[in-house]
Design brief:
It comes from Fibrella aquatilis. The chain is of the alpha/beta class and about 500 residues long. Helices cover about 35% and strands about 20% of the residues. The protein contains 15 helices and 20 strands. The strands form five sheets. The protein has a seven-stranded mixed sheet with strand order 8-7-16-17-18-15-19. Strands 10-2-1-14-20 form a five-stranded parallel sheet, with helices on one face. The chain has a three-stranded antiparallel sheet with strand order 5-9-6. α1 packs parallel to α9 and α4 packs antiparallel against α5. The longest helix has 23 residues. The relative contact order is 0.18. The structure holds flavin-adenine dinucleotide (FAD). Flavin-adenine dinucleotide (FAD) binds next to α1, β15, α14 and α15. Flavin-adenine dinucleotide binds next to α1, β15, α14 and α15.
Length: about 500
């Protein structure tokens, strides 16, 4: 049996591995000349000839067991392909007024830190993390591990547990509301509101159920792949190749061929190639609009509001900053105003003049990612998804705001330290990965029905067509993309 995967994003590669293990002969068609989609890498050459390496997209790695599972499934030892370490420090937080706080992986140490620096009773933090674990435990099996679009999911024991625990899930309040009730100090509310951005949502709209996200980082852990985030992609691509999967790069799929209620193959470079089964890792909106224009379009799902996007500055910095770590956040002074602007509540969606800055520096853990004495700065600002804004003006203004804010908090003029630069914005995210509107995480989760408004992992119209990746169930981010591949493979008959 021959299977085709459209796209070598992380979910596409995971799907290829799962289908190969099931005995399929698998071909992966990728429009770019590299694998990984958003999870890829590139380099800058410094003026003195040294090299800065950057991970292009994701920087936070959680739930590494989902990557390990793929090696084990194929009968391999994960450590032969891929190594990672658990971080002791989850993130360093900075505010304009000089407050600095480290989120430690050790809960008690983190609790002591918030008590010492913010005067917040440490027990509040411990309670929050315990609540996050409970929410995760109840929702994981129901919402993340199974198809929501099969009746069996709603009749089992896990569903019953979900129904019984519904009041504890926070479905009816917002994340911000729950965090304001939990914490006294506005800075801690802001810190935990930030987790809404992990799937591109707005903490002032998204349901408190998304307070499950800190569980991944603090209870299961935040990790660093020893060879950088791209080694998630490269190690899985290596496994796939070892399993005999064929990768075709610079091979954009132009159409999914169908006859009646079956997919018959793909059109690539004006050639029709027959397949028994097709999995699309291309954004679901573009899969329907571009590859299946004559099929029934599931408009209600395709038209859902999209998650936020990102504006990323990749800077080679010719100095080291000991006060910074791998993950650093510089918070805005008015978080709610920032999100109102991002999601266009009071006008066109745009970036705040005082954006929250996420600064990731992999050379802190992988020194060869920057020349000696230098650092590779990956600066991510939450940005609205692309609706045709004047991005060139927005980017120029944002660059000034970032330099001003970092210079203020770090006490040194950052501008002259930037010796190499490249930029990724919602337009280029859209054109490089076919993400609808350049959204980082598919649909937004800003309403309580969002989980039900993502497309299923199978086609309702064509018996042998499946969907995986950040734009479909269970959602965006590396762990959920990997789970989408698992759900898909469980739906495919052995
Ligand atoms: P994608 O990465 O979207 O790739 C899809 C692939 O399909 C692309 O390679 C594309 O070229 C290919 N394709 C599309 N159409 C066609 C076609 N017609 N023919 C052939 N090929 C096609 N997640 C985290 O877990 N942690 C983070 O810290 C994090 N930070 C992020 C930061 C940024 C800047 C970005 C951009 C994303 C971030 N994410 C993060 C989200 C994460 O990267 C994505 O959810 C995930 O990588 C999406 O994977 P995917 O499998 O859906 O495919």
């Amino acid at each position: 049996m021959k299977a085709a995967i459209i796209g070598a994003g992380i979910a596409g590669i995971a799907s290829a591995i799962r289908l190969a293990v099931k005995g399929y002969s698998v071909d992966v068609f990728e429009a770019n000349d590299y694998p990984g989609g958003k999870l890829s890498t590139f380099e800058h050459t410094a003026p003195d000839g040294g090299v800065y390496r950057f991970d292009a997209g994701p920087s936070l790695f959680t739930m590494p067991q989902l990557v390990d599972d793929l090696f084990r499934l194929a009968g391999r030892n994960p450590a032969d392909y891929f190594e990672y370490v658990r971080l002791e420090e989850t993130c360093r937080y900075f505010w304009d007024d000089g407050t600095r706080l480290t989120a430690w992986a050790d809960h008690n140490r983190f609790a002591r830190e918030v008590e010492a620096i913010l005067g917040e009773p440490g027990q509040h933090l411990l309670d929050h993390l315990a609540d996050s674990a409970l929410k995760y435990d109840v929702t994981e099996k129901l919402f993340l591990q199974k198809s929501l679009h099969k009746l069996g999911t709603w009749l089992g024991r896990d569903a019953l547990r979900g129904y019984l625990n519904l009041p504890k899930l926070g479905v009816f309040g917002t994340m911000n509301g729950a965090n304001e009730r939990r914490f006294q100090h506005p800075k801690l509310v802001q810190l935990f509101n930030r987790y809404a951005t992990y799937n591109g949502s707005d903490p002032y709209q998204t349901p408190a159920t998304l307070n499950i996200i800190p569980h991944l980082e603090y209870n299961i852990g935040a990790f660093f792949p020893k060879q950088g985030m791209v080694s998630i992609t490269s190690s899985l691509e290596k496994l796939a190749t070892d399993l005999g999967i064929q990768f075709h790069y610079k091979a954009r799929v132009d159409a999914i061929e169908t006859t009646g209620k079956q997919v018959t193959g793909l059109r690539v470079d004006n050639q029709i190639i027959p397949f028994d089964l097709v999995v699309s890792n291309m954004d679901v909106v573009n899969t329907f609009r571009k590859l299946l224009p004559n099929a029934r379009q599931p408009e209600r799902i395709l038209r859902q509001p999209k998650s936020s996007s990102g504006l990323i500055f990749y800077w080679g910095i010719n100095r080291e900053f000991p006060e910074l770590d791998l993950h650093n956040i510089f918070f805005s002074n008015d978080y709610q105003a920032e999100f109102n602007q991002l999601f266009g509540k009071n006008g066109p969606a745009s970036l705040s003049n005082d954006p929250t800055i996420y600064l990731n520096i992999t050379s802190k853990h992988k020194p060869d990612d920057a020349p000696p004495g230098h650092e590779n700065w990956f600066i991510l600002l939450n940005a609205p998804n692309n609706t045709g804004q004047d991005w060139d003006t927005i980017i120029a203004q944002a660059r000034q705001h970032v330099i001003r804010k970092l210079s203020h908090v770090l006490g040194v003029d950052v501008a002259p330290l930037i010796e190499t630069e490249s930029i990724l914005d919602p337009r280029s995210i859209e054109s490089r990965t076919s993400s609808s509107q350049g959204a980082l995480y598919g649909n937004s989760s800003n309403n309580r029905f969002a989980a039900f408004m993502r497309h299923a992992n199978f086609s309702h119209e064509f018996g042998n067509l499946y969907f995986v990746g950040g734009s479909v169930h269970p959602g965006g981010g590396i762990p959920l993309c990997l789970l989408s591949a698992k759900i898909m493979s469980e739906l495919v008959a052995d």
